[in-house]
Amino acid sequence: MSLAIGVASKSSMGFEDKSNGDATTPDTHHHSGKGATTDDESGDERGQSLSRYKSESSVALTEDEEDDDDREIELGPQCTLKEQLEKDKDDESLRRWKEQLLGSVDMNSVGETLEPEVKILSLAIKVDGRPDIVLPIPETGNPNGSWFTLKEGSHYRLMFTFQVSHNIVSGLKYTNTVWKTGIKVDSTKEMIGTFSPQAEPYTHEMPEETTPSGIFARGSYSAKTKFVDDDNKSYLDITYTFDIRKDWQ
Question: Full-prediction pTM beyond 0.90?
Answer without folding.
Answer: no
